[in-house]
TrEMBL record, chain A:
SUPFAM superfamilies with a match to the protein in the record: Nucleic acid-binding proteins (SSF50249)
Name of the molecule in the record: Zn-ribbon domain-containing OB-fold protein
InterPro entries tied to this protein: ChsH2_C, NA-bd_OB-fold, Thioester_dehydratase-like
Organism: Novosphingobium cyanobacteriorum
Classification via PANTHER family: BLR3430 PROTEIN
Taxonomic superkingdom: Bacteria
Residue ranges constituting the ChsH2 C-terminal OB-fold domain according to the UniProt record: 48-107
Automatic annotation (TrEMBL), chain B:
Positions of the Thiolase C-terminal domain: 238-380
InterPro entries with a match to the protein in the record: Thiolase, Thiolase-like, Thiolase_C_2
Pfam family, one: Thiolase_C_1
Protein name (record): Acetyl-CoA acetyltransferase
Highest taxon of source: Bacteria
Length: 125, 385
Protein backbone atom coordinates (compact mmCIF):
# COMPACT_ATOMS: atom_id res chain seq x y z
CA UNK A 1 0.00 0.00 0.00
CA UNK A 2 2.86 2.35 0.82
CA UNK A 3 4.32 1.71 -2.61
CA UNK A 4 1.53 3.54 -4.45
CA UNK A 5 2.55 7.11 -5.38
CA UNK A 6 1.30 9.15 -2.40
CA UNK A 7 0.02 12.28 -4.15
CA UNK A 8 -1.95 10.39 -6.78
CA UNK A 9 -3.36 8.10 -4.09
CA UNK A 10 -4.53 11.03 -1.97
CA UNK A 11 -6.43 12.64 -4.83
CA UNK A 12 -7.78 9.25 -5.97
CA UNK A 13 -9.26 8.75 -2.51
CA UNK A 14 -10.87 12.22 -2.68
CA UNK A 15 -12.28 11.40 -6.14
CA UNK A 16 -13.91 8.34 -4.51
CA UNK A 17 -15.38 10.58 -1.81
CA UNK A 18 -12.94 9.54 0.94
CA UNK A 19 -10.67 11.92 2.92
CA UNK A 20 -7.70 9.71 3.78
CA UNK A 21 -4.35 10.68 5.27
CA UNK A 22 -1.40 8.60 6.47
CA UNK A 23 -0.23 7.17 9.76
CA UNK A 24 2.98 5.45 10.76
CA UNK A 25 2.14 2.44 13.01
CA UNK A 26 5.68 2.29 14.39
CA UNK A 27 5.50 5.83 15.77
CA UNK A 28 1.72 6.23 16.05
CA UNK A 29 2.04 9.61 14.29
CA UNK A 30 -0.54 10.75 11.77
CA UNK A 31 0.99 12.46 8.76
CA UNK A 32 -0.18 15.12 6.32
CA UNK A 33 0.81 15.78 3.50
CA UNK A 34 1.17 12.32 1.96
CA UNK A 35 4.72 10.99 1.63
CA UNK A 36 6.68 7.82 0.84
CA UNK A 37 8.82 8.10 3.96
CA UNK A 38 7.59 8.94 7.46
CA UNK A 39 8.95 12.30 8.66
CA UNK A 40 11.53 12.31 11.47
CA UNK A 41 11.70 8.51 11.93
CA UNK A 42 12.22 7.67 8.25
CA UNK A 43 9.96 4.66 8.78
CA UNK A 44 8.76 2.77 5.73
CA UNK A 45 5.38 1.87 7.18
CA UNK A 46 3.05 4.75 6.27
CA UNK A 47 -0.47 3.45 5.74
CA UNK A 48 -3.66 5.18 4.63
CA UNK A 49 -6.23 5.78 7.33
CA UNK A 50 -9.39 7.83 7.61
CA UNK A 51 -9.23 10.71 10.10
CA UNK A 52 -12.33 11.79 12.02
CA UNK A 53 -12.61 14.84 9.74
CA UNK A 54 -12.86 17.03 12.83
CA UNK A 55 -10.43 19.77 13.60
CA UNK A 56 -9.80 23.23 15.04
CA UNK A 57 -8.91 26.46 13.25
CA UNK A 58 -5.27 27.20 14.21
CA UNK A 59 -4.90 30.41 12.18
CA UNK A 60 -6.98 32.26 9.61
CA UNK A 61 -6.55 35.08 7.12
CA UNK A 62 -9.21 36.61 4.89
CA UNK A 63 -8.28 37.35 1.31
CA UNK A 64 -9.97 40.60 0.33
CA UNK A 65 -11.72 40.33 -3.00
CA UNK A 66 -12.95 43.14 -5.20
CA UNK A 67 -16.75 43.35 -4.74
CA UNK A 68 -19.04 41.73 -5.75
CA UNK A 69 -16.70 38.73 -5.43
CA UNK A 70 -16.88 37.43 -1.85
CA UNK A 71 -13.94 37.52 0.55
CA UNK A 72 -12.36 34.10 1.05
CA UNK A 73 -10.97 32.59 4.23
CA UNK A 74 -7.65 30.78 4.14
CA UNK A 75 -7.18 28.79 7.30
CA UNK A 76 -4.70 26.40 8.81
CA UNK A 77 -6.80 23.65 10.37
CA UNK A 78 -5.34 21.33 12.98
CA UNK A 79 -6.94 17.92 12.61
CA UNK A 80 -7.88 16.17 15.85
CA UNK A 81 -5.35 13.49 14.89
CA UNK A 82 -2.55 16.13 14.96
CA UNK A 83 -1.49 17.14 11.44
CA UNK A 84 -2.30 20.60 10.08
CA UNK A 85 -3.49 21.51 6.60
CA UNK A 86 -4.34 24.65 4.68
CA UNK A 87 -7.99 24.91 3.70
CA UNK A 88 -11.05 27.13 3.42
CA UNK A 89 -13.72 27.37 6.09
CA UNK A 90 -17.00 27.61 4.21
CA UNK A 91 -20.69 27.81 5.13
CA UNK A 92 -20.01 30.97 7.13
CA UNK A 93 -18.94 34.54 6.27
CA UNK A 94 -15.17 34.61 5.84
CA UNK A 95 -14.88 37.40 8.43
CA UNK A 96 -16.69 35.23 10.99
CA UNK A 97 -14.10 32.44 10.96
CA UNK A 98 -12.30 32.46 14.30
CA UNK A 99 -9.15 30.84 15.63
CA UNK A 100 -10.21 27.99 17.92
CA UNK A 101 -13.41 27.31 15.97
CA UNK A 102 -14.35 23.62 15.71
CA UNK A 103 -14.72 22.50 12.09
CA UNK A 104 -15.59 19.39 10.08
CA UNK A 105 -14.13 18.32 6.72
CA UNK A 106 -16.11 18.16 3.50
CA UNK A 107 -15.00 17.17 -0.01
CA UNK A 108 -15.77 19.64 -2.80
CA UNK A 109 -14.67 20.36 -6.38
CA UNK A 110 -11.28 22.06 -6.61
CA UNK A 111 -9.95 24.45 -9.22
CA UNK A 112 -8.95 21.74 -11.69
CA UNK A 113 -10.24 18.17 -12.03
CA UNK A 114 -9.21 17.34 -8.46
CA UNK A 115 -11.50 17.25 -5.46
CA UNK A 116 -10.27 19.16 -2.39
CA UNK A 117 -11.00 19.16 1.33
CA UNK A 118 -12.67 22.21 2.85
CA UNK A 119 -14.12 22.68 6.30
CA UNK A 120 -17.33 24.06 7.74
CA UNK A 121 -18.26 24.87 11.33
CA UNK A 122 -18.90 21.64 13.23
CA UNK A 123 -22.13 23.04 14.63
CA UNK A 124 -23.54 23.60 11.13
CA UNK A 125 -22.90 20.03 9.99
CA UNK B 1 27.82 27.60 28.28
CA UNK B 2 29.09 25.39 25.48
CA UNK B 3 31.91 26.81 23.44
CA UNK B 4 31.09 27.82 19.86
CA UNK B 5 33.07 26.42 16.92
CA UNK B 6 32.68 29.78 15.17
CA UNK B 7 35.99 31.54 14.41
CA UNK B 8 35.02 34.75 16.19
CA UNK B 9 36.67 37.87 14.82
CA UNK B 10 38.97 35.93 12.47
CA UNK B 11 37.21 37.33 9.41
CA UNK B 12 36.32 40.95 8.65
CA UNK B 13 34.36 42.88 6.07
CA UNK B 14 36.41 45.27 3.95
CA UNK B 15 33.78 46.42 1.46
CA UNK B 16 30.01 46.96 1.48
CA UNK B 17 27.75 48.87 -0.82
CA UNK B 18 24.42 49.06 -2.60
CA UNK B 19 23.39 50.16 -6.06
CA UNK B 20 20.13 51.05 -7.74
CA UNK B 21 17.83 50.73 -4.73
CA UNK B 22 14.37 51.64 -5.95
CA UNK B 23 14.37 51.87 -9.74
CA UNK B 24 17.32 51.11 -12.03
CA UNK B 25 15.78 51.04 -15.52
CA UNK B 26 17.49 49.30 -18.40
CA UNK B 27 19.87 47.15 -16.40
CA UNK B 28 19.91 43.37 -16.12
CA UNK B 29 20.03 41.92 -12.60
CA UNK B 30 23.65 40.88 -13.12
CA UNK B 31 24.61 44.40 -14.25
CA UNK B 32 23.28 45.78 -10.96
CA UNK B 33 25.11 43.13 -8.90
CA UNK B 34 28.33 43.70 -10.86
CA UNK B 35 28.29 47.44 -10.18
CA UNK B 36 27.76 46.83 -6.44
CA UNK B 37 30.50 44.14 -6.47
CA UNK B 38 32.99 46.40 -8.26
CA UNK B 39 32.35 49.25 -5.83
CA UNK B 40 32.55 47.04 -2.72
CA UNK B 41 35.84 45.53 -3.90
CA UNK B 42 37.21 48.98 -4.75
CA UNK B 43 36.68 50.11 -1.14
CA UNK B 44 39.49 47.70 -0.21
CA UNK B 45 41.61 48.30 -3.31
CA UNK B 46 40.57 44.91 -4.70
CA UNK B 47 39.25 43.84 -8.11
CA UNK B 48 37.22 40.84 -9.31
CA UNK B 49 40.53 39.06 -10.02
CA UNK B 50 41.15 38.87 -6.26
CA UNK B 51 37.93 36.95 -5.58
CA UNK B 52 38.30 33.18 -5.07
CA UNK B 53 35.08 32.62 -3.12
CA UNK B 54 31.86 33.70 -4.84
CA UNK B 55 28.51 33.66 -3.05
CA UNK B 56 25.72 34.85 -5.30
CA UNK B 57 21.97 34.74 -5.61
CA UNK B 58 20.24 35.60 -8.87
CA UNK B 59 16.47 36.17 -8.68
CA UNK B 60 15.63 33.60 -11.34
CA UNK B 61 18.78 31.95 -12.74
CA UNK B 62 19.29 28.48 -11.23
CA UNK B 63 22.93 28.62 -12.33
CA UNK B 64 23.29 32.23 -11.12
CA UNK B 65 26.63 31.72 -9.38
CA UNK B 66 28.18 30.32 -12.54
CA UNK B 67 26.71 33.11 -14.66
CA UNK B 68 28.06 35.77 -12.32
CA UNK B 69 31.55 34.23 -12.19
CA UNK B 70 31.51 34.33 -15.98
CA UNK B 71 30.27 37.95 -15.96
CA UNK B 72 33.15 38.93 -13.65
CA UNK B 73 35.61 36.85 -15.68
CA UNK B 74 36.84 34.92 -12.66
CA UNK B 75 37.41 31.24 -11.84
CA UNK B 76 36.45 30.90 -8.14
CA UNK B 77 37.52 27.83 -6.19
CA UNK B 78 34.30 28.05 -4.17
CA UNK B 79 31.06 29.03 -5.94
CA UNK B 80 27.89 28.97 -3.87
CA UNK B 81 24.48 29.92 -5.23
CA UNK B 82 22.49 28.00 -2.66
CA UNK B 83 19.02 29.39 -2.16
CA UNK B 84 17.39 29.43 1.24
CA UNK B 85 15.44 32.60 0.50
CA UNK B 86 16.36 36.04 1.76
CA UNK B 87 18.42 34.63 4.61
CA UNK B 88 20.87 33.13 2.09
CA UNK B 89 23.23 36.08 2.52
CA UNK B 90 23.60 35.66 6.27
CA UNK B 91 24.21 31.95 5.65
CA UNK B 92 26.85 32.92 3.06
CA UNK B 93 28.62 35.04 5.71
CA UNK B 94 28.56 32.08 8.09
CA UNK B 95 29.99 29.68 5.50
CA UNK B 96 32.47 32.14 3.98
CA UNK B 97 33.86 32.84 7.46
CA UNK B 98 34.61 29.16 8.07
CA UNK B 99 36.11 28.77 4.56
CA UNK B 100 38.26 31.90 4.94
CA UNK B 101 39.45 30.90 8.40
CA UNK B 102 40.33 27.41 7.14
CA UNK B 103 42.37 28.95 4.34
CA UNK B 104 40.32 27.44 1.52
CA UNK B 105 39.66 30.92 0.11
CA UNK B 106 41.26 34.34 0.62
CA UNK B 107 38.64 36.83 -0.60
CA UNK B 108 34.89 36.17 -0.48
CA UNK B 109 32.44 38.25 -2.50
CA UNK B 110 28.75 38.09 -1.56
CA UNK B 111 26.56 39.81 -4.13
CA UNK B 112 22.96 40.15 -5.25
CA UNK B 113 21.06 42.16 -7.82
CA UNK B 114 17.47 42.24 -9.04
CA UNK B 115 15.81 44.34 -11.72
CA UNK B 116 12.28 43.02 -11.01
CA UNK B 117 10.53 46.36 -10.56
CA UNK B 118 11.51 47.88 -13.88
CA UNK B 119 11.65 44.54 -15.75
CA UNK B 120 8.24 43.12 -14.78
CA UNK B 121 6.83 45.28 -11.98
CA UNK B 122 6.28 42.12 -9.95
CA UNK B 123 8.16 40.00 -7.46
CA UNK B 124 10.59 37.91 -9.54
CA UNK B 125 10.31 34.33 -8.39
CA UNK B 126 10.98 30.72 -9.33
CA UNK B 127 9.04 29.38 -6.36
CA UNK B 128 7.47 25.98 -6.98
CA UNK B 129 3.76 25.80 -6.08
CA UNK B 130 2.97 23.43 -3.22
CA UNK B 131 0.47 20.71 -4.20
CA UNK B 132 -1.37 20.81 -0.87
CA UNK B 133 -1.58 24.61 -0.48
CA UNK B 134 -2.02 25.78 -4.08
CA UNK B 135 -5.67 24.63 -4.43
CA UNK B 136 -6.66 27.19 -1.77
CA UNK B 137 -5.01 30.05 -3.68
CA UNK B 138 -3.27 31.90 -0.84
CA UNK B 139 -1.80 35.24 -2.00
CA UNK B 140 1.74 34.20 -1.22
CA UNK B 141 3.81 35.29 0.48
CA UNK B 142 1.32 37.79 2.02
CA UNK B 143 -1.28 35.24 3.20
CA UNK B 144 1.35 33.08 4.91
CA UNK B 145 2.71 36.00 6.94
CA UNK B 146 -0.88 37.12 7.57
CA UNK B 147 -1.60 33.74 9.18
CA UNK B 148 1.39 34.26 11.48
CA UNK B 149 0.22 37.79 12.33
CA UNK B 150 -3.32 36.55 13.03
CA UNK B 151 -1.99 33.88 15.36
CA UNK B 152 0.24 36.39 17.18
CA UNK B 153 -2.73 38.71 17.66
CA UNK B 154 -4.86 35.82 18.95
CA UNK B 155 -2.25 34.51 21.33
CA UNK B 156 -0.70 37.75 22.62
CA UNK B 157 -3.21 40.50 21.96
CA UNK B 158 -1.00 42.21 19.39
CA UNK B 159 -2.98 44.98 17.67
CA UNK B 160 -3.28 46.43 14.18
CA UNK B 161 -1.88 49.72 15.49
CA UNK B 162 1.20 47.92 16.81
CA UNK B 163 1.81 46.50 13.32
CA UNK B 164 1.34 50.06 12.10
CA UNK B 165 4.02 51.30 14.51
CA UNK B 166 6.53 49.11 12.66
CA UNK B 167 5.56 50.62 9.30
CA UNK B 168 5.73 54.17 10.69
CA UNK B 169 9.14 53.62 12.29
CA UNK B 170 10.54 52.21 9.04
CA UNK B 171 9.25 55.23 7.13
CA UNK B 172 10.75 57.68 9.64
CA UNK B 173 14.17 56.08 9.21
CA UNK B 174 13.74 56.04 5.41
CA UNK B 175 13.14 59.78 5.45
CA UNK B 176 16.73 60.17 6.69
CA UNK B 177 18.16 57.83 4.03
CA UNK B 178 18.72 59.45 0.61
CA UNK B 179 18.85 55.95 -0.95
CA UNK B 180 15.41 54.93 0.38
CA UNK B 181 12.65 54.50 -2.18
CA UNK B 182 9.65 55.54 -0.04
CA UNK B 183 10.32 58.79 1.78
CA UNK B 184 6.96 60.56 1.89
CA UNK B 185 5.51 61.06 5.40
CA UNK B 186 3.31 58.30 6.85
CA UNK B 187 0.93 58.62 9.82
CA UNK B 188 -1.20 56.10 11.70
CA UNK B 189 -4.42 57.38 10.16
CA UNK B 190 -3.09 56.70 6.66
CA UNK B 191 -1.82 53.30 7.75
CA UNK B 192 -5.16 52.29 9.28
CA UNK B 193 -7.05 53.47 6.18
CA UNK B 194 -4.84 51.54 3.76
CA UNK B 195 -6.32 48.55 1.91
CA UNK B 196 -6.28 45.12 3.54
CA UNK B 197 -4.67 42.51 1.28
CA UNK B 198 -4.91 39.39 3.42
CA UNK B 199 -6.15 40.15 6.93
CA UNK B 200 -4.71 41.46 9.14
CA UNK B 201 -2.00 42.61 6.72
CA UNK B 202 -2.61 45.83 4.80
CA UNK B 203 -0.71 47.17 1.79
CA UNK B 204 1.42 49.23 4.20
CA UNK B 205 2.33 46.09 6.17
CA UNK B 206 4.01 44.69 3.05
CA UNK B 207 7.53 45.31 1.81
CA UNK B 208 8.18 47.24 -1.38
CA UNK B 209 8.75 45.76 -4.83
CA UNK B 210 11.90 47.49 -6.07
CA UNK B 211 15.09 46.98 -8.02
CA UNK B 212 18.39 46.99 -6.21
CA UNK B 213 21.77 45.40 -5.69
CA UNK B 214 24.24 45.00 -2.85
CA UNK B 215 27.64 43.45 -2.28
CA UNK B 216 30.03 42.83 0.58
CA UNK B 217 33.64 41.61 0.62
CA UNK B 218 35.21 39.48 3.35
CA UNK B 219 38.76 38.47 4.09
CA UNK B 220 40.78 37.26 7.08
CA UNK B 221 41.09 39.97 9.70
CA UNK B 222 44.91 40.13 9.60
CA UNK B 223 44.79 40.96 5.89
CA UNK B 224 41.74 43.19 6.31
CA UNK B 225 43.78 45.49 8.58
CA UNK B 226 46.28 45.97 5.76
CA UNK B 227 43.55 46.86 3.29
CA UNK B 228 41.41 49.41 5.16
CA UNK B 229 41.55 51.43 8.37
CA UNK B 230 38.52 50.04 10.18
CA UNK B 231 37.31 46.65 8.95
CA UNK B 232 34.06 45.35 10.45
CA UNK B 233 34.55 42.08 12.31
CA UNK B 234 32.32 39.01 11.90
CA UNK B 235 31.80 38.00 15.53
CA UNK B 236 29.11 35.38 15.11
CA UNK B 237 26.82 33.81 12.54
CA UNK B 238 24.32 30.95 12.60
CA UNK B 239 21.43 29.56 10.56
CA UNK B 240 18.36 27.37 11.08
CA UNK B 241 15.52 26.01 8.93
CA UNK B 242 12.17 24.83 10.26
CA UNK B 243 9.78 24.36 7.32
CA UNK B 244 8.95 25.50 3.82
CA UNK B 245 5.22 26.29 3.71
CA UNK B 246 3.46 28.06 6.55
CA UNK B 247 1.04 25.12 7.01
CA UNK B 248 3.92 23.10 8.45
CA UNK B 249 5.44 25.74 10.72
CA UNK B 250 5.26 24.22 14.19
CA UNK B 251 4.38 27.40 16.12
CA UNK B 252 3.40 30.42 14.00
CA UNK B 253 4.54 32.77 16.76
CA UNK B 254 8.09 31.41 17.19
CA UNK B 255 10.63 31.46 14.37
CA UNK B 256 13.96 29.71 13.95
CA UNK B 257 15.55 33.11 14.68
CA UNK B 258 15.36 32.00 18.30
CA UNK B 259 17.78 29.20 17.47
CA UNK B 260 20.00 31.02 14.94
CA UNK B 261 20.13 34.06 17.22
CA UNK B 262 21.09 32.04 20.30
CA UNK B 263 23.95 30.36 18.45
CA UNK B 264 25.12 33.63 16.87
CA UNK B 265 25.16 35.35 20.29
CA UNK B 266 27.04 32.40 21.79
CA UNK B 267 29.63 32.62 19.00
CA UNK B 268 30.04 36.36 19.53
CA UNK B 269 29.98 36.13 23.32
CA UNK B 270 27.35 38.88 23.57
CA UNK B 271 23.65 39.17 24.35
CA UNK B 272 20.81 41.22 22.93
CA UNK B 273 21.32 43.93 25.56
CA UNK B 274 24.85 44.54 24.20
CA UNK B 275 23.63 45.28 20.64
CA UNK B 276 23.73 48.95 19.58
CA UNK B 277 21.89 48.75 16.25
CA UNK B 278 19.48 46.17 14.84
CA UNK B 279 18.71 45.27 11.23
CA UNK B 280 16.05 42.60 10.67
CA UNK B 281 14.46 41.37 7.47
CA UNK B 282 11.07 43.12 7.52
CA UNK B 283 9.27 41.55 4.57
CA UNK B 284 6.11 42.34 6.57
CA UNK B 285 5.51 44.33 9.75
CA UNK B 286 4.92 41.16 11.77
CA UNK B 287 8.50 40.05 10.98
CA UNK B 288 10.02 42.90 12.97
CA UNK B 289 7.86 42.03 15.98
CA UNK B 290 8.66 38.30 15.75
CA UNK B 291 12.40 38.83 15.31
CA UNK B 292 12.68 41.38 18.14
CA UNK B 293 11.17 38.69 20.36
CA UNK B 294 13.09 35.72 18.99
CA UNK B 295 16.41 37.60 19.04
CA UNK B 296 15.88 38.46 22.69
CA UNK B 297 15.14 42.20 22.59
CA UNK B 298 11.86 41.58 24.44
CA UNK B 299 10.01 38.56 25.85
CA UNK B 300 7.89 36.35 23.57
CA UNK B 301 4.53 37.99 22.95
CA UNK B 302 5.71 41.46 23.99
CA UNK B 303 6.91 42.56 20.53
CA UNK B 304 3.77 44.55 19.76
CA UNK B 305 3.95 46.48 23.01
CA UNK B 306 7.74 46.85 22.60
CA UNK B 307 7.42 48.83 19.35
CA UNK B 308 4.70 51.19 20.64
CA UNK B 309 5.27 54.92 20.98
CA UNK B 310 8.00 55.14 18.37
CA UNK B 311 10.31 52.87 20.39
CA UNK B 312 12.14 51.57 17.29
CA UNK B 313 11.87 54.82 15.31
CA UNK B 314 14.55 57.53 15.28
CA UNK B 315 15.01 58.78 18.84
CA UNK B 316 13.41 55.63 20.29
CA UNK B 317 14.91 53.16 22.75
CA UNK B 318 16.34 50.78 20.11
CA UNK B 319 17.38 51.74 16.56
CA UNK B 320 15.84 49.11 14.24
CA UNK B 321 16.11 49.02 10.44
CA UNK B 322 17.83 52.36 10.19
CA UNK B 323 17.86 52.40 6.37
CA UNK B 324 14.05 52.20 6.27
CA UNK B 325 14.01 48.43 5.88
CA UNK B 326 12.24 46.36 3.27
CA UNK B 327 9.10 48.30 4.13
CA UNK B 328 10.37 51.73 3.06
CA UNK B 329 13.96 51.56 1.75
CA UNK B 330 14.01 48.76 -0.82
CA UNK B 331 12.97 45.17 -1.36
CA UNK B 332 14.42 43.66 -4.52
CA UNK B 333 12.97 40.19 -3.90
CA UNK B 334 15.61 39.13 -1.38
CA UNK B 335 16.53 41.69 1.24
CA UNK B 336 18.98 39.83 3.53
CA UNK B 337 22.14 41.40 2.10
CA UNK B 338 20.75 44.91 2.61
CA UNK B 339 20.45 44.33 6.37
CA UNK B 340 24.16 43.43 6.36
CA UNK B 341 25.19 46.50 4.35
CA UNK B 342 23.24 48.84 6.64
CA UNK B 343 24.72 47.22 9.76
CA UNK B 344 28.23 47.63 8.29
CA UNK B 345 27.56 51.25 7.31
CA UNK B 346 26.36 52.01 10.84
CA UNK B 347 29.51 50.44 12.35
CA UNK B 348 31.67 52.42 9.90
CA UNK B 349 29.84 55.64 10.78
CA UNK B 350 28.69 56.33 7.22
CA UNK B 351 25.00 56.94 7.84
CA UNK B 352 24.72 60.73 7.86
CA UNK B 353 21.66 62.05 9.71
CA UNK B 354 20.44 58.54 10.57
CA UNK B 355 23.79 57.55 12.09
CA UNK B 356 23.48 55.86 15.49
CA UNK B 357 25.89 57.34 18.03
CA UNK B 358 29.17 55.40 18.24
CA UNK B 359 27.85 51.84 17.70
CA UNK B 360 30.21 48.90 18.32
CA UNK B 361 27.88 45.91 17.96
CA UNK B 362 25.27 45.33 15.26
CA UNK B 363 22.96 42.46 14.40
CA UNK B 364 21.84 41.72 10.85
CA UNK B 365 19.12 39.09 10.65
CA UNK B 366 17.89 37.39 7.47
CA UNK B 367 14.61 35.60 6.84
CA UNK B 368 13.78 33.22 4.01
CA UNK B 369 10.64 31.70 2.54
CA UNK B 370 7.63 32.22 4.81
CA UNK B 371 9.48 32.51 8.14
CA UNK B 372 11.03 29.20 7.02
CA UNK B 373 14.74 29.84 7.12
CA UNK B 374 16.51 32.17 9.53
CA UNK B 375 20.11 33.30 9.74
CA UNK B 376 21.74 35.78 12.09
CA UNK B 377 25.04 37.64 11.83
CA UNK B 378 26.63 39.68 14.62
CA UNK B 379 29.13 42.29 13.53
CA UNK B 380 31.48 44.44 15.55
CA UNK B 381 33.85 47.37 15.34
CA UNK B 382 37.61 46.53 15.40
CA UNK B 383 37.59 47.19 19.16
CA UNK B 384 35.18 44.28 19.78
CA UNK B 385 37.69 41.63 18.60
Amino acid sequence: MTQAPPTATYFQHLAEGRFMIQRSPSTGEWVFYPRMVAPVSGANDLEWVEPSGLGTVYAVTVKRAKPPAPNVSIAIVELDEGPRMMSHVQGIEADQVRIGMRVRARIVDGLDDNKIVVFEPEAAA
Amino acid sequence: MTSSPFPRGKVSIVGATTFGQGRAPGFQSSDLAAIAARDALAQAGLTPADVDGLFFCHPTDTFGGLSFAQYLGIHPTITDNSRVGGSAFQAYVEQATFLLDAGLIDVALIAFGNNQATATGKLATTIYPMTYEAPYKPINPVSSYALAAARHMHQYGTTQEQLGEVALAARSWAQMNPEAFKRDPLDMETYMASRTVSSPLKVLDCCLVTDGAAAIVLTRTDRARDLIARPVAVLGAASATTHREISWMEDLTVTAAKDSGARAYAAAGVTASDIDVVQVYDAFTINTILFLEDLGFCPKGEGGRFVEGGAIAPGGRLPVNTNGGGLSCCHPGMYGLFTLVEAIRQLRGECGTRQVTDPHLAIAHGNGGVLSSQATVILGSPETI
